[in-house]
């Protein structure tokens, strides 16, 4: 993995704990959202202000080896912090979906492509539909594609 630097754990205790347990177990533990049984991946970004490495568990929305990263923040009126990290540096991103992380490049989706991935996201995690109805902002969706080695 080429994304290096100082790691700053999340200020949220449950996020810190989930990331630590997921990584230490090679993805065999803490690989679902709390007690939902719905799978997550760990997304690593570089902080757009601090430059530090940040890690966030996100719902696993995978299709054909690509992943949707849904910036829902539970339907809050503002974007999650990691959204700004992706916008600022879409090439400094990694995903861990199992034992080893891999580098990805991300791009924000729009139009029909976003609609297709949004449908996949809602199928993987149905609360996304409710989150969108609870906010006036359009929830961004990024597509993460493995970097060519």
Question: What's the short story on this structure?
Answer:
This protein has 149 residues and is α+β, with helices and mostly antiparallel strands. The protein has helices at 13-24, 81-88, 111-124, 127-133, and strands at 40-46, 53-59, 62-63, 66-70, 93-96, 101-108, 141-146. A seven-stranded antiparallel sheet has the order 2-1-5-6-7-4-3, with helices on both faces.
How would you describe the overall organization of this protein?
The mean pLDDT is 95. The protein has a 7-stranded antiparallel beta sheet, sandwiched between helices. The protein has a single domain (13-146), classed as Electron Transport, Fmn-binding Protein, Chain A (Pnp Oxidase, Chain A, Roll). The longest helix has 14 residues, at 111-124. Strand 1 and strand 2 form a beta hairpin. The protein has helices at residues 13-24, 81-88, 111-124, 127-133; strands spanning 40-46, 53-59, 62-63, 66-70, 93-96, 101-108, 141-146. The relative contact order is 0.20. The chain is α+β, with helices and mostly antiparallel strands and 149 residues long.
Give the helix/strand layout.
Layout: H1 13-24, E1 40-46, E2 53-59, E3 62-63, E4 66-70, H2 81-88, E5 93-96, E6 101-108, H3 111-124, H4 127-133, E7 141-146
Antiparallel strand pairs: 1-2, 1-5, 3-4, 4-7, 5-6, 6-7
Distance between the termini: 11 Å
Regarding CATH, which class? Mainly Beta
Number of helices: 4
Read across the widest sheet, the strand sequence of neighbours is 2-1-5-6-7-4-3
Multimeric status of the protein: single chain
Shape descriptor: globular
Structural class: alpha+beta
- Average pLDDT figure: 95
Low-confidence stretches: none
Based on CA atoms alone, the radius of gyration comes out at 14 Å
Q: Into how many domains do the coordinates divide?
A: 1
Instruction: Tell me what portion of residues adopts beta-strand conformation.
Output: 25-35%
* CATH superfamily descriptor: Electron Transport, Fmn-binding Protein, Chain A
Looking at the overall shape, the CATH architecture is Roll
* Element-by-element helix/strand order: HEEEEHEEHHE
In the CATH scheme, what's the topology name? Answer: Pnp Oxidase, Chain A
């Amino acid at each position: 993995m080429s994304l290096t630097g100082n790691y700053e754990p999340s200020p949220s205790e449950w996020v810190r704990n989930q990331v630590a347990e997921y990584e230490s177990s090679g993805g065999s533990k803490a690989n679902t959202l709390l007690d939902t049984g719905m799978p997550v991946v760990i997304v690593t970004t570089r902080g757009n202000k601090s430059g530090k490495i940040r890690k966030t568990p996100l719902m696993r929305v995978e299709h054909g080896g690509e992943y949707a990263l849904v910036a829902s923040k539970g339907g809050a009126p503002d974007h999650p912090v990691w959204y700004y990290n992706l916008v600022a540096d879409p090439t400094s991103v990694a995903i861990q979906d199992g034992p080893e992380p891999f580098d990805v490049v991300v791009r924000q989706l729009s139009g029909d492509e976003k609609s297709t991935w949004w449908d996949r996201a809602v199928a993987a995690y149905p609360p996304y539909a409710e989150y969108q109805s609870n906010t006036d902002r359009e929830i961004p969706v990024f597509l993460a594609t493995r970097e060519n080695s």
